[in-house]
Structures are given as structure tokens and as C-alpha cells.
Amino acid sequence: MKRIIDLITEELAEAFEQAGYDRAYAKVTLSNRPDLCEYQCNGAMAGAKAYKKAPLMIAEDVVSKLENSQCFEEVSAVKPGFINLKIKKEYVAEYLNQMLADEKMGLETAKEPQTIVVDYGGPNVAKPLHVGHLRSAIIGESIKRIARKMGHQVLGDIHLGDWGYQMGLIITELRIRKPDLPYFEEDHQGEYPEEAPFTIGELEEIYPTASSKAKEDEEYRKEALQATYLLQNGHKGYRAVWNHIMNVSVADLKKNYERLNVHFDLWKGEADAQAYIPDMIEWMKKDGYAHIDEGALVIDVQEETDTKDIPPCMIQKSDGASLYGTTDLATLIQREQDYKPARIIYVADKRQDLHFLQVFRAAKKTGIVPAKTELKFLGFGTMNGKDGKPFKTREGGVMRLENLIGEIEEEMYEKIAENRTVAEEEAKETAKIVGMSAIKYGDLSNQAAKDYVFDVDRFTSFEGNTGPYILYTIVRIKSILNKYQAGGKTAEGTRMDVVCNESEKALMLEAVKYNEVIETAFEELAPHKICAFIYDLANAFNRFYHETKILAEEDERKQKSYIALLVLTKQILENCINVLGFEAPERM
What we know:
Blueprint: H1 4-18, E1 28-30, E2 39-41, H2 43-51, H3 55-64, E3 72-78, E4 82-87, H4 89-101, E5 115-119, H5 134-149, E6 153-157, H6 165-177, H7 200-216, H8 218-232, H9 236-259, H10 270-273, H11 277-286, E7 290-293, E8 296-299, E9 313-316, H12 324-338, E10 343-349, H13 353-366, E11 374-380, E12 383-384, H14 401-418, H15 424-444, E13 452-453, H16 456-459, H17 467-486, H18 502-511, H19 514-523, H20 527-547, H21 556-580
Helix pairs in contact: 1-3, 2-3, 4-18, 4-21, 6-7, 6-8, 7-8, 8-9, 12-13, 14-15, 17-20, 17-21, 18-20, 19-20, 20-21
């Protein structure tokens, strides 16, 4: 289905043409004065110079051609040349009926679906997830779901940090603690144990201990660097330890991401890129893309149009070690070979902007990815506490993600328990669902690039621009529909064919924006626009609900029309929260 604003624009374009003006001036937008009209066109102002005519005269000419419009209820030319538009109630109702009959609710999905990779998550193995991992997971998951909603083939890749210095630190500390393990026997023959010599809890304690030691003890640091080197060059015992680290860590990561309702299609990491690095460096040197600068191998990425210096992309240190840039370029080679994506979207902290600029330019310059492949960096801001500083525990440490989720769930449980009419188990399950909406909506309702304050009290409120408020609205609609059907009636097949009051029309005018909002959110990688839309939609529904006797309506035709509008509103809200990564309970 075409977007309603495009249909309105087409009708206005016909009027411009019939009046002797260029159709291009018929651009329609939502009114910035909703008290006066619903849509507006400022094209007469833009055309005044070209036609050497007063804008108001042009506007009046156009308006005269819309007297018998199928679309508009009121059209007026207003000084100095605005065209104000009010749409017919019947026109909106029929458009919504078409949405209701369409399984995609009017959304025009991609005619030529693309393969898109979304790179998000990016945790280091052997470390617990903390609040710093929250934004990447939440934003990335939503971008993936929005792209899928638009009909594209999307692969979400966690891109684990699984190959660096931290591995050498863990191996070194493990060797000191348990020197008799077979992994450290140089002449070991046969297989290594299947069971890991540590639990996830022990592993999460080993790493920070080793990291602290390395900062204070130079000899220890050298041992860790040597262990890293041996691991990366195929040491059998160290590779076996690495496999244990990966298995234990990934199992724990999957459990925590599952709790966030975040799912990855690919569990690739830096280690997967290693096989591509030697050949990549060789041909980059051979073909003249890379050169030595102060002992390091670099690719120049400065361009003539740059207004500031862009440092070269370093792909190998003077000691032969790889860097993040090396791994990212090698990962692009792997992705191009395996998936040939048309688009790759990276979701990471906005402070990595320069890094991705260097990597993208190096990838295009060297031909690692075709010129037509779009490489996009979506940088996000910081999640802060009420003090405006990065979110911490009460003790001042970095908060573990599972603890944050637990706190939110507890807060929601207490609020639900205050006026609970359901059993304790159901209340706990509901608290988990509503708590997830509080976390995700609290994050996604902000523009990704901006820092925001994580305010537990505000995010868990059932009032205002919050996830729980959106869910409460959905549950309210479900309750009305259940009562309607409990009376022996069915909501299936109902249509909107009468519009009785202004709050009903206002709700309809919000609902028709659905396909435009989803398309825009995809094009601009902007989940916050979906949040703004469903907040407006929820507000419009609640105004309609308070002003209309839905279940008490005696006119069956009117009531069926109301029910059809409720069914569609619920479907829109549920579709939107699904792409934001959470769901609604049956009751609250």
C-alpha cells in the first residue's frame, strides 16, 4: 500500500497541474498547526518566484481545483500562501480498512531484498556483561528487526572480542594457579580434557586478577604477552584452554542475551578473522596499498576534501602484532566471501567514530568490499546516572547487566504487587515482561547518538513516555476486546465505516502513519522514531477511550467500527514493540 501522505500528495499534485503549475510544488507535510488543519502544503510559497505571482494567488488557484475532492473534507488558502488540508473521515476509515485486511498492515517491503549484516554486541569473552554492553545490544537488535520487517535478509553478528591480550592473561594466571594441568605440559600426548578447568564464576575472577598483576609486575606482563603470542601461533595446549574459555563464556553470554531478548545469527569473533590476515597483509604490501611508517604497517586514508587530518589506518604494529583495524578489515574479507552483503551496519560507542572511518576508507581503497557496498557506523552515546556521569552501582563500580535487569524486575514486581489481582507467579512473569519494556523503551526512545540519563523511577512508571505505559495501553485494548468477545460477539471481519467523534478521527490519523514511520526508522536507523510514534498513538487511543463508550454503545454499527479500530491499533502497537525487542503481557 502507498503511504497515505503519498496519496494525498498525488491528489494535490493533480490540482497543481490542472491550475497550470509544476507538480513538484505539491509537497504535503503534517500540519505544524493541528488546531487549524491536519496536513499542509507550502508549495505556493516556493513557486511564487518561478511564476512571478503572489503565493496566495497560486494557493487559491490550486484550491479551486479541489472542490470535488475524494480525499479532502476542507481545503483553504491562507495568507501568505499556505494550503491547509483536512482529510475526509470516510477516506481515512477506508485506508485503515485496507491496512486491517493486509497482513503487512500496508507496509511496502523491499522489492529487491538486500543481505544486511548488523554488527552489534561486541563483548569480550571471559568478562561479565555490564551496563556498558546494554546500548549496543538493544539498539543493534532493534535495527536488525526493523530491517527484517522491511523484508531484508539480515544477519546479526555478535563479533566477540576473543583473541587478544586478555587470553594471554587468563592462560598465564591459570598456569600459575594450576601448573599441573595437561595444557601446560610441553610433551603432552593425546587428547585434552573435555571439561573446562574453571567455571564462569572462576573465569570472571581470574581475568581482573591477572589484569591487575600485569599492571604492577613487568615480568608477569611479558609472560602474558608471550602466552598470547603462542596461542595465536597455534600452541596446542593454549588452544585447548582457549576453547574452554570460549565454550564457558559463550554459554553464559547466550543466557544473558536471552534474558534481554537479544538473539544473534552469527557468533563470530576476532579469532575467525585470523586466517585471513596473513594473505591480506601480503597483498596490501605487494599492491602498494600499505607502507611502513615509523616501523608500523599503515594504509593512508586521508582524502583531498578532508578539512582535518585523518590518521592512517594501522594494520600491523612494529612487533608484528595485529590491531582492531586489522581484525575488522579481515572480518570484512570473510563477510564478503561468505555473505556478499549489500550493507553492513556497525553499532558501537560513538567515540569509535574515527576508527570506523579509517577502516571503511581502507576497505574501499583496497577493494576489500565493492564500491557499491554500504558501510555504516551507528554510534551511540553514554548511558548515565542521575548525576550525569556513566551509570554505576551504589558503591561506584560498573554494574553487571544481570544485576541491573534484576533491579528493574524487582521494581516492577513491587508496583504490580501493590494492586495485584493475579497470582504471585503470574505477577513475577509480568514483572519480567514489563521490566524489559522499561529498559528497552527507556533506551530506544532517545536518539542513539545522544547521551541519556537512566532513571529507574521514571522508566518504570506507568504514566508518561515509558515502556510500561505503552504496555498498559495494549493490555487495556486486549481487555476491551476480550469483554466484547465474551458477550458472544466477534471482532473478526469488523470494519470502520462510521467516524463518530474527533478523538476517534485523531486516533485514526495517528494509526495511518504506521508504514511511513517504519520505513523512516529503517532508512535513518532511528528506533526512537518508532517510540515517538507509539507514544502518540497510545495517547490518542487513551483520549478516545475516555471520551467514548465503546462496550456500552447501543448502535451495533458504531460499536463494530470502534472494535475494528481497536483491533488495528493493537496490531500496530504490538508490531512496533516487537521491532523494539519486547512484548506485552495479557494482564497487568
